[in-house]
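Quick one: NAD(P)H-dependent oxidoreductase from Paenibacillus sedimenti, structure tokens please.
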Amino acid sequence: MKVTLIAGSNRTNATSTYLLKYIENHLKAQHISVAFVDLSELQLPLFSPDNWDFHPNVGRVLEAIADGDGLILATPEYHGSISGALKNALDYITAGQVTGKTVLSVSSAGGPLGVSSLSHLQTIVRNLHGINCPEWISIGYGSNTFGPDGAPLDEGMRNRVRDAVDSFVELTRKLTATAAAAN
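--- reply ---
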């Protein structure tokens, strides 16, 4: 199984990216192959439906999505929604690239929780015909501190993240097996 992770902040040292790196380590500990796309390092030009001659960075993102059996999207919450960098990346995706894949939504907010950004992500996933994981991860002010290894310092947060990721992995495995059996 291969999972594609997209860190949707263009901010260096973003808490949503730290959280995604912790998730990456958790997946690798389970011997799951991971492709990590960090939009702060792999910047994309502004999407335009008039230009389908994509920049090489866009090709890398689309290839990582196509190669993954599942997708984890992480975003900071800005003004009650997802980051512009992540929205721009998602605008390049067509439904065929996400159809039938499990998607886990992750948010980091400056306030108590990032529920609005998670709702927006799930709406986008539905429009791309992806399958939203029934779990999601939201961290907010006070719970977004991380140790030197990238792990959340709060034990309850670590447990919630692991539980959500394990639920995502289980659903991804089931959907991948079902798709393989149908072919």
